[in-house]
Amino acid sequence: MNNETLSQLEQLIDKLILRNSELESEVKSLQEQNTKLLDENETLQLEVLENEEKQKDTSSTLTGLLEKLQSVQQAS
Fold this sequence. Notes:
By secondary structure, this protein is mainly α. It contains 1 helix and no strands. The N and C termini lie far apart (about 110 Å).
């Protein structure tokens, strides 16, 4: 190999090392983002479950009130 070829090879290796470092940084950032989004998703799923429970309770209360009104109406 001549000096020119060695120099080109060295430059290419330097570029590869730099690009690898950039990609590793990007992967780390994406992993952190993924973890954050998974946490947010879990929180949202819990909120949905809580809201569904509240809706069931509200529905039961409303049904009870309607039954009371109907029984009063029928008694009249």
